[in-house]
Amino acid sequence: MRKLPPCIVVAALAACTPDAQPPEREESSPPVAVEQSTTSAAPQPSPAADPVPSGAKMVLPVGEYRLAGADGQGVDLGHAITVSVTEREIRLASQCVTPRWTYRIEQGRMATEAVVEPICDRGRYPAEEAASAVFGSPERIEKTEANGWRISGGGRTITLFSQ
Fold it and tell me: Which of 90, 103, 117, 118 has the largest CB neighbor count within 10 A?
């Protein structure tokens, strides 16, 4: 397994477009600190996927990513949803929706904690909800055969590709 050099990246916000309208906002509880449970059942990888080997660190490499899929469906919005990963933080950017999480490695696995701060008051797209669930409780990170990253957690799955 090769190590990637650490670097700090800046999240790029996607341009807004009036074509796509988000669903109505649903009332939800405020974000809370969530830690990875090592006893939860993780989905089995497909034979073509290259999962993180047992005992290896489960960490998404530092970099800039595009959210390409959520729960097995492609993301087709009028704007990009991006994910920036630094040495200490994960930041999602989808128009004015910009949640972020700090993370640390505990027993070789990623443990995240939501950074509670105000974000825009609009409904959430399903892909945004899936990414929030995954980063709130990451369970499995694996490389895809198309050289992307499939991340599962919180009962959801997302697929990221480097930008």
Answer: 90
Predicted confidence (pLDDT) per residue in 122-163, tens digit: 999 999 999 999 999 999 999 999 999 999 999 999 999 998
Residues contacting residue 65 through CB under 8 Å, at least 6 positions apart: 82, 83, 84, 85, 149, 160, 161, 162, 163
Q: Of 159, 141, 154, 160, which is closest to residue 37 (Cα–Cα)?
A: 154
* Token reading at 37: 């449970």
DSSP-H helix ranges across the chain = 126-136
- pTM given for the model: 0.66
Instruction: Tell me the HSE value of 33 on the side-chain side, using a 13 A CA sphere.
Output: 5
